């Protein structure tokens, strides 16, 4: 149910845009290329099972955990919303 100047379905359009942005961001963070045999950060051998499970992996589990712990949390607000939906 849209109100004001917003068209019908505007809320769902904003939700869809937010989901599409999150998927695109996640895809851009995925590994690409060949897996490294040794971690690029600490030079520890990366287990074969991890290299098979995560194609293109470059970090050992410990370094990956540290990287993800320090990662900035992205905003969950849709910045592409129409001006009409922001006038409410």
Number of discrete helical segments: 4
Shape: elongated
Radius of gyration: 20 Å
Strand content: under 5%
List low-pLDDT spans.
none
Q: How helix-rich are the residues, as a percent range?
A: 40-55%
**Which H/E pattern describes the elements?**
HHHH
Secondary structure category: mainly alpha
Largest beta-sheet characterization: none
> What is the typical, i.e. mean, pLDDT?
80
Termini separation comes to 13 Å
Q: Care to give the gist of this entry?
A:
With 88 residues, the chain is mainly α.
Structure description:
By secondary structure, the protein is an all-alpha fold. It is built from 4 helices and no strands. The chain has helices at 10-28, 48-53, 61-70, 83-86. It is elongated. It starts with 9 loop residues before the first helix and ends with a helix. The mean pLDDT is 80.
What is the topology?
Elements: H1 10-28, H2 48-53, H3 61-70, H4 83-86
